[in-house]
Design goal:
With 267 residues, the protein is an alpha/beta fold. It has 2 domains: 2-82 and 190-263, 3-Layer(aba) Sandwich (Rossmann fold), CATH 3.40.50; 87-186, Hypothetical Protein, Haloacid Dehalogenase-like Hydrolase, Chain: A, domain 2. It is built from 10 helices and 16 strands. The strands form 4 sheets. A 6-stranded mixed sheet has the order 9-8-7-10-12-11, covered by helices on one side. A hairpin with a 6-residue loop joins strand 5 and strand 6. The longest helix has 14 residues, at 87-100. The mean pLDDT is 96.
């Protein structure tokens, strides 16, 4: 397979169950870059949470964070794409979460704001290597748009709640899921596909020049947009149904796939 740009999801794709880079992945990415294939990380995480892996992999590309709502180059600080949730909708969802008893994460710029530090917040901080800012009453503290909004909804309710919110905010917010307990609400112009398109255009590339790899529901839009969409073996069934290729259930399948990529003639 040939491409000029390889877009990689992070958690569940490039990272193992311990949130560490898969064995062999750094070497295969380095080899692909030497051959002329550019690599961009596309994550639901905060940009600052992706940066350690960006540095570890020796990348020189913008980071697609927040499921596509915010794209920034860590070295230059250049913001390539930014589509936050408007302030009025931010406050509306914060109020809904309070009424329904859902924990909510809000993100101001590239900071995590929460009402209080609870068990979930502590776990989130540890898992993603970030520090939350405790602000008390979010409805009073927030005076600008949130980059995205994240609700914690435990199974088996997550699919039902996500569908309910998608219907409630149809045309006003894009609703997706990440991990197994996160329902995320974003500006309708924000998703990994839209962000990947913006990055590609910045590089003078088209969809046919791009290969995207992911595992989750929040990867569907970028899999659809890219010229070739790839699902890892453990990917959600919804994503596998959209993919052009599903990798074998082998820990070496992704590094082997990346090692097989060759730059397109357009390079």
């Amino acid at each position: 397979m040939k491409c000029s740009l390889l877009a990689l999801d992070l958690d569940g794709t490039v990272l193992d169950s311990g949130r560490q880079l898969l064995a062999g992945i750094a070497q295969s990415i380095a080899s692909a870059q030497k051959r002329g294939v550019q690599v961009v990380l596309c994550s639901g995480r905060m940009v600052c949470s992706v940066e350690p892996f960006w540095r570890q992999l020796g990348l020189d590309s913008s980071i697609i964070g927040y499921n596509g709502a915010y794209v920034r180059h860590p070295a230059t600080g250049e913001v390539v794409f930014y589509e936050p949730v408007p302030l009025d909708l931010t406050l509306e969802v914060v109020g809904l979460a309070k009424t329904r008893g859902f924990h909510i994460n809000t993100y101001i710029g590239d900071e995590l704001w929460v009402a209080a530090r609870n068990e979930y917040v502590r776990r989130y901080e540890t898992t993603y290597g970030v520090q939350a800012k405790v602000v008390g009453d979010l409805e009073r503290a927030i005076t600008q748009p949130s980059t995205k909004l994240l609700l914690v909804v435990e199974p088996p309710d997550i699919d039902r709640i996500a569908q309910e919110l998608a219907e409630r905010y149809q045309g006003r917010l894009f609703v997706t899921q990440s991990e197994d307990i996160h329902v995320e609400l974003l500006n309708p112009r924000a998703n990994k596909g839209a962000a990947l398109e913006a990055v590609s255009k910045r590089l003078g590339l088209e969809a046919r020049d791009v290969v995207a790899v992911g595992d989750g529901i929040n990867d569907i839009e970028m899999i659809r947009w890219a010229g070739a969409g790839v699902a890892v073996a453990q990917a959600k069934p919804q994503l596998q149904a959209e993919a052009d290729l599903v990798l074998a259930p082998d820990p070496d399948s992704l590094p082997t796939f990346i090692a097989s990529l060759r730059p397109s003639r357009r390079n």
